[in-house]
Amino acid sequence: MSEESTAVTHPFLDLPPLSAAHFASIEDRVARLLDTRQDVVITQGEALLPLEGAIRSTAGPGTTALNVVTGPYGQTFGDWLRDCGATVIDLAVPFHAAVTAEQIRAAFAAHPSIDFVSLVHAEAATGNTNPVAEIGEAVREQGALFYLDAVASIGAEPVLPDAWGVDLCVIGAQKAMGGPAGVSAVSVSERAWARMAANPGAPRRSYLSLLDWKERWIDGGRKALPHAPAQLEMLALEACVERIETAGLPAVMARHASAAAATRAGVLALGGGLEPYVHEARDAAPVATTLRTPAGVDASELVARALANDPSVPLAAGGGALSKEMIRVNHYGADATPEVVRASLTALAGALGVVGDR
Ligand SMILES: *Cc1c(COP(=O)(O)O)cnc(C)c1O
Fold first, then answer.
1. Of these four, 73, 83, 116, 206, which has the most CB atoms within 10 Å of its CB?
2. If you average pLDDT over residues 174-185, what whole number do you get?
3. pLDDT tens track for 222-264
4. Nearest to 24 by CA among 39, 34, 4
5. Ligand 1 centre and the CA of 116: distance in Å?
6. Mutation choice for ligand 1 from 67, 121, 151, 174, CB with most ligand atoms inside 8 A
7. What per-residue confidence (pLDDT) applies to 6?
8. Which atom of ligand 1 is nearest to 287's Cα?
């Protein structure tokens, strides 16, 4: 090796600084992906950053929150809301189903003071998806602020904050978008900005603050960035949105829907007692399919055996107590293909000791 090798450039390193104009153009592309005219703030951290920041910015002791729990993320949101001093009404839905707009309306009737609704669109961790368009109508009738975790749905199914009346819509790139995990975004409605401005407990001069971004970035016309941007993550986010634009968002969503349908159908054809965990196909998320193991079969042991057969397949056991009975087939991003679904089912069949018929 010659001495010059020490000065060799690397594709991840030695990047020129990312300009404010470039940063703003990536925000605009994310806004187009969401078909929104709201402000889109790109948050340079994993999606839990805007998820927590948006709750702490808008909720406080005067808030009455309806927190819909269809999986582990809903539980986390309830904890943050309580920590902010909000009165929290948890609406827990069995993980094998979705919440309905009727249940949301019943909660409003029982608790007329509800002025905030938190909902997870699709839960990769439990495999369900909720009917946000119908729920949005109910939330608008109530006049409540609508917070949505669309991290696992963006790229796999339509996410339309403006059409659905979502005030705070959080996305992350690491699931169906097939992008990086270290960057995320939130769209913020005028109503949500007003709620934050009126909230004395909203984080300021803080990494969690959305108002800081409004004051220091958006209100100044997005001319100067308040901090050095995370270029690597921003460039990866741009590349991932560009790849979706090239393929077409409908095609990317169709690929996920097909992977989910094939997984459900394949599991039923397999025999061996595995079943879709989510009972109704319409409640099943296109991003990931969860399966229930037969009685007496431990899901984490079955997954370990399947991964020993084929370490490449995107299988995982459910988290926490679900690790005994739930298998997750994470067919998202590059794994939303018939080949990956087939390999996953083959590995599971081998682990169950059943012989697949194809
Ligand atoms: C994956 C996911 C997130 C992001 O959280 P990680 O656990 O860090 O991946 C947030 N919300 C939902 C609904 C998700 O599925």
1. 116
2. 97
3. 999 999 999 999 999 999 999 999 999 999 999 999 999 999 9
4. 39
5. 21
6. 151
7. 65
8. 15
Its pTM stands at: 0.96
Pocket of ligand 1, beta carbon within 6 A = 46-48, 73, 120, 123-125, 149, 151-152, 172, 175
- 3-state secondary structure (DSSP) of residue 187: strand
Report, at the CATH architecture level, how domain 249-356 is classified: Alpha-Beta Complex (3.90)
Helices first, then strands: H and E counts in the chain: 12, 11
- Whether 70 shows a pLDDT value over 90: the answer reads yes
Is the model's pLDDT at 2 over the cut of 90? no
Phi then psi for residue 297, to 5 deg, are -105, 120
Q: H or E segment at 185?
A: strand 184-188
172 CA: nearest ligand 1 atom? 4
Tell me the CA–centroid distance for residue 328 and ligand 1, in Å. Answer: 14
If we measure between CA atoms, which residue out of 166, 117, 103, 115 comes closest to residue 143?
115
pLDDT tier, 357 (very low <50, low <70, confident <90, very high otherwise): very low
Q: What is the pLDDT of residue 5?
A: 57
Distance 355 CA to ligand 1 centre (A): 34
- Range 5-14 average pLDDT: 81
Check pLDDT > 50 for residue 356.
Answer: no
* d(CA 6, ligand 1 centre) in Å: 39
Q: Are the C-beta atoms of 118 and 55 separated by less than 8 Å?
A: yes
Nearest CA to ligand 1 atom 13: 123
Ligand 1 centroid from CA 221, angstroms: 31
Pair 120, 68: CB distance under 8 Å? yes
Q: Which atom of ligand 1 lies nearest, measured to the CA of 122?
A: 13
Name the pLDDT band for 7 (thresholds 50, 70, 90).
Answer: confident
CA–centroid distance, 298 to ligand 1, in Å, is 24
Helix locations, 40-100, DSSP H: 48-58, 72-83
Question: What are the structural domain ranges in the chain?
Answer: 20-246, 249-356
Class of domain 20-246: alpha beta
